[in-house]
């Protein structure tokens, strides 16, 4: 595992640099990441390139066995470039140009800016492409972060028109597919179609209140902007490929912070990489981003290029809590357990100046090593011991299917906003599976998923005809499909389907959606959830029943499907809300509302158990995460106690502590913010 820090030698005095490099070498880490904000030092004036200051650091670290990930600095165009070519500046949805003085103040579609980026990327690639101490390259930095992913400048307006023309061919075709006749919005040419006034970017401010635009124009602008970001990225990817065989990637932020389709954006990259800042003070580190990361680029490892390091100040001016002692180490090992091939803390030493001054770091501004530094040092040693486990497989038999079109569409036209969000709901289902001991991957709707025994389809608002057909065949061939409310409501043109819902899949699920509404505090009601007994006692009439409150959304179902959930109150009394149906060799379940976590877990355990039996070995209480992997046919369990008290792990007999090599007792106690790695002993 590549383990280390982000470092910024361009900001250091000679004395600070010497002090930092000495401590970095002594820490035991093996990787640093440098250069993403240093364009003004790499190219202080147009056409004059200077790398000697960075060469010295790369060489000094390399001689100590520490490799470098070199970044292209294109997130921060220097003053001379902006002053000479102000047309490269980013323009937001309000028409406001972003001035020099921050970062990411560029238009990613501007040809002159792309040429400048390609030029400095080529110089970096020529200089460092064959350097033995370089472990990889990062393109730009956090693309589209901080509301910079939806430029509306004249260049982007024109390019958006051409993108639409290429996609639809004729304006008549676009008018028909978009329903432009509504509100007399029919166009005579593609040049009349402008970027939308409204934006779903985090932090964006809409200029005109209550201005409602065509849903397809808005969705297509999201698609176009994502494609444009990918084009910008890949213009640098192509250059780097000519000069190096090292891995090339970029660093994403969150699952959709910047609304780039990561499934598409990583196609030309060697791996998916992202930045992650979880709380480490009395908090569970959510593993959903790791499951998502494993599924972005099938078969490739993932990197975490920026990770939490400490507490104190932060960029936005608010604060982050310091991690509990041991929590930093625990979180890094957790990332390793979930398949991270690289993890780098941001950052090594706190900045004394600039917009990110006083930010959290491994070492404070004075450069004196304290507990975070020594914990990082201990973690580096642990990772060396765990390295033989890095090739262990993830034995997932279930998958959660996600799609950016549905994410974008449900932000453009939200339901039950802000309580319901698409990706958060996928996360909720992942956690329920995790809690009952079922390993699940998180993958694209467009990926290959036919080999999984169970598929979960959360709120698949948009489903194209190809995906609908594949889902139908999947169930017919023996798969178990679990879909939730808001499935198949729209087609790929972001237009509502005129067939009964879920459109084109009613026979698979054996139901039709009769009526829908959001669920608020004032219209909550309850339903009876009926499931067969775990021992199969349903043959004798034995069942388990719960009265469960609904949530988020409510759909009343009719049809031939077996009713597993039936409303008990109000005018909905007696109406089906959860169904199950045999279709071909498989089974399809439709869940027309949300449920509390406990009910979801019971439901999933019952429906999935025949295909994905949960492991009966090594059980963990609430608050302890269990990650199971397979190495040469042996089970490996990673266990992480995120609670504030010691926890007892049961059924450990037949395993041994991987780090101590001692046989485990049947019950093992795991201390607060501690972890345990158990390996199955040969029979």
Automatic annotation (TrEMBL):
Presence of keyword Hydrolase: yes
Name of the molecule in the record: Beta-galactosidase
GO biological process: galactose metabolic process
Enzyme class: hydrolase
Domain (Beta-galactosidase C-terminal): residue spans on this chain: 631-680
Species assigned in the record: Eisenbergiella tayi
Family membership: Belongs to the glycosyl hydrolase 42 family.
Keyword Glycoprotein attached: no
